[in-house]
Amino acid sequence: MRIVIVGAGMVGTQLARHLVLEKHDVSLIEANEERARHASNRLDCMVIHDEGNSFSALEEARLAKADALICVTDSDEVNMIICGLAASRYPKLLKIARVRNDDYIKLNAGENRFLEDRAILGIDYFVHPDVEAARSVLNAVEHGAMGDILVFADTPYELGSVEISEGSEFDGLAMKDFRTLVKEDGLVTLVEHRGETLLPRGSTVLSRGDRVHILAKEQDLDHIFRLAGRSERTLRKIGIVGGSRVGALIAEGLLGKTKKQPSLKGSLFSFLKNVIPRSGRRVTIIERDYNLCKDLAARYPEALVLNEDISDESFVAEERIDDLDLIITATEDQELNMIAAIYLKSRGVHRAIAMVTGSGYAAIARQLGVDVVIPMKSVVVDSILSHLMGEGITGIHRLGNGDINVFEIELGLDTPAAEKKITELNPSGGGLVMLVTRGESSFIPRGDYIFKSGDRIILIAKGSSEAELERFFGSFQGSRRILGSGNILGNSSSVEGR
Fold this sequence. Notes:
Elements: E1 2-6, H1 10-21, E2 25-30, H2 33-42, E3 46-49, H3 55-60, E4 68-71, H4 76-89, E5 94-98, H5 102-108, E6 125-127, H6 129-142, E7 148-151, E8 157-163, H7 178-181, E9 186-193, E10 196-198, E11 211-217, H8 218-227, E12 237-241, H9 245-255, E13 282-287, H10 290-299, E14 304-307, H11 313-318, E15 326-329, H12 334-346, E16 351-356, H13 359-368, E17 372-375, H14 376-386, E18 393-399, E19 404-410, E20 431-438, E21 441-443, E22 456-462, H15 466-473, E23 487-488, E24 496-497
Parallel strand pairs: 1-2, 1-4, 2-3, 4-5, 5-6, 6-23, 12-13, 12-15, 13-14, 15-16, 16-17
Antiparallel strand pairs: 7-8, 8-11, 9-10, 9-11, 17-24, 18-19, 19-22, 20-21, 20-22
């Protein structure tokens, strides 16, 4: 697949690095000279130092022969204009733009009915980072913020990760004995041990500090987490630090829509469909900007809005912030988010969720004791990847340090895997079919399982295995499934948790 990426910030470079690893032909355009030089030194792909809205730069990047154009510059308008320019000459090209302005998303959500069957500027998909991040936070909250959660559409199963505590029943457990301890229908799919990611075998022994990724039904996952040493706690008193876009979306999801709030009509809350509001929740929003606090108080009358600085120790004591069940730090300052989450946990807050920029800070935050970490850039990259690989793949999620991929695959009528046993799938880097959905039934397959056309499977494999998977399941890069004009990318719920 040939892909042109405009914007070499953290999202653009993460995306390019992943695609290059998977042997795709990538061209990267960046207007900033320093960023372009940095990307050129670190990535094995064509890097062009030029403006992305220049046709000459797009042609130099071989847009005419490209399969997809992805615009992830810092400007919503530039991203949209570049896609519009490309659409005028190459209408069949897949075009994805990252945007942050809520109004653009509402246009594509059907609030203006006359746009329902037309793409804005020819853009096939919009990515909204704040919607993706808020969805990840809310999924974690609904599971008690005990660890990170990956939700799969139309199945009762979820993939949760949790760190094993010292003295827990998982500490010292060999994988061959897993079924004797865990009676529920579950599967350990990945183990992170001292910086190394392992696809576990029967001889693998778990120990404290390991982070395990477990597939199980939603109602069973919390019990398995408790066996790993994580105590369950009802989260009724929740604090949100930061009232900008993502903080407001989280508040909206926690409070839910009510008839008393007509202003929520057409809001981005409609994309947070998996969140179930719980009665008795008390939400406190802490924000330094006075004008923003006024707006938040008007929009969310059920919430307590405090115009304060979370770094003020006297404020924490006076307002009894340390009495919260959960703190969610969602400011635009990732260092403040980490420090505030760690500090408030030391003061007695039971759970903490922190937003950071990328996976590097996520690893640091986990080591320091943050329960769930949301790396916003990684969430956006996963969302783009989920809609880039064609009709066969309906979702891609990266785990660990980005070297493990979880694929959601729908087997077509002519798939090479049809009528073959699961044991015949043996990628050189290692892999595991975690889950199969056939019709209305979802189950963890055994070794004698035979693939059928129409099956939907969840598969975990090491990076750079895409070519081998294609030989077994058919091309992922054939005709793309464009679900309509201007859809929101919303299949990814990846988070990184402690």
